[in-house]
Design brief:
381 residues, alpha/beta, Aspartate Aminotransferase, domain 2, Aspartate Aminotransferase, domain 1, 2 domains, three-stranded parallel beta sheet, 11 strands, globular
Length: 381
């Protein structure tokens, strides 16, 4: 079996391009020795809050911790419900259960894979204490409608799980800056990643910001004074330094991702006289008003597994996000959902396939990927 000859996400190419800056930033931390909550934390939080366009950024140890901190800051716990989607990574719903609340799932839109906002209002009950949409694969759901519905129901807080969309926009507003609280992840494979786990929270609410900062640091802002039950959720100073070294190149990387994503779509779109693809195959669709950072470039095929196997034979890595929906996971059996409850999510989980995507992907690699996809659908002679 041929081993992949190209990278699904090429972190080594990024490191080579930024090596001097990254090493200088790490060396500075090693020199001053403030490994926990060092000066790079405040510097990074200032840059990121300005970038997103909100008053406050609170960095955290991971994107999972950041979601949990947000829920705790909103006093969400046993007996409460949080509305989200079943087609996402487990962290989204895991943190809801972790604080003692119940995840309430609603299905996705089959085109964008994000929350189907048409289903949102019917899922709201007196126990609904937050709505947590996921900005999946690099673009945001319709937050204007989501926020309007939330406001109509006693201003239910909206938490954006923007782990895959940092850098994306919706009608000019950046991901993580359009809801009560925005959360993102700096996991290495994310569009803006460090070299370990990391995450951040964003808000314009002064009280929520102070509460989240306290919860992040064992429930207090002053040593030996703990108003809240908190956690050890701080971002390491070295990870902040790495993110600072990468920040100046991030705008270029976002632009490259968008160019590469647009080129993929152009190459994969069937046109008269060129290659064509079978029914059920489709490239991603970017919703009106949105830009995407293509955390993954995700196509859809009714023969997903066969296509993935063929690409592997050609030395092309591909990945499935996500082969099981959350209501299929044993951990969420207590929610009492069943197969068939979320048909679009279930269908997507059996059909989506993500192709190599990173700012250093070459045209030659893209051409090879698309040509291989095209050949895989040709009938045997």
């Amino acid at each position: 079996m041929t081993q992949p000859t190209m990278q699904f996400i090429d972190l080594k190419a990024q490191y080579r391009a930024l090596e001097e800056k990254i090493k200088a930033r790490i060396d500075a931390v090693l020199e001053h020795g403030h490994y926990i909550m060092g000066p790079e934390i405040n510097e990074l939080e200032g840059k990121l809050s300005e970038y997103v366009g909100v008053k406050h950024c609170i960095t955290a140890a991971s994107g999972t911790d950041s979601l949990e901190i947000a829920l705790r800051a909103l006093n969400i716990g046993p007996g409460d419900e949080v509305i989200t989607v079943p087609f996402t990574w487990i962290s989204t719903a895991e943190v809801i259960a972790q604080v003692g609340a119940r995840p309430v799932f609603i299905d996705i839109d089959p085109v964008t894979y994000n929350m189907n906002v048409d289903l949102l209002e019917a899922a709201i009950t007196p126990q609904t204490k937050a709505i947590m949409p996921v900005s999946l694969f690099g673009q945001m759901p319709d937050y204007e409608r989501i926020n309007t519905i939330a406001a109509r129901h006693n201003n239910i807080p909206v938490i954006e799980d923007g782990a895959q969309s940092f850098g994306a926009t919706q009608y000019g507003r950046r991901s993580c800056g359009v809801t009560t609280i925005g959360s993102t992840s700096f996991f290495p494979a994310k569009p803006f990643g460090c070299y370990g786990d990391g995450g951040a929270l964003f808000t314009n609410d002064d009280h929520l910001a102070e509460t989240m900062r306290a919860i992040r640091t064992h429930g207090g802002l002053q040593r030996h004074h703990h108003p809240y039950i908190g956690m050890n959720g701080r971002l390491d100073t070295i990870q902040a330094a790495i993110l600072l070294a990468k920040f100046d190149s991030f705008a270029w990387e976002v632009e490259r991702r968008q160019d590469i994503g647009a080129r993929y779509t152009e190459l994969l779109s069937a046109t008269p006289g060129s290659r064509s693809f079978p029914p059920g195959f489709s490239p991603p669709c970017i919703a009106k008003g949105n830009t995407s950072v293509y955390a993954q470039y995700t196509i859809r095929s009714q023969n997903r597994d066969g296509l993935a196997a063929y690409l592997k034979e050609q030395g092309i890595p591909a990945a499935v996000y996500y082969p099981k929906c959350l209501h299929e996971q044993p951990a969420f059996a207590f929610c009492n959902y069943h197969m068939g409850d979320f048909p679009e999510s279930e269908k997507a989980s059996r059909e989506v396939l993500s192709l190599p995507m990173h700012p250093y992907l070459t045209n030659d690699d893209q051409n090879k990927i698309v040509a291989s996809i095209s050949v895989s659908f040709e009938p045997e002679k």
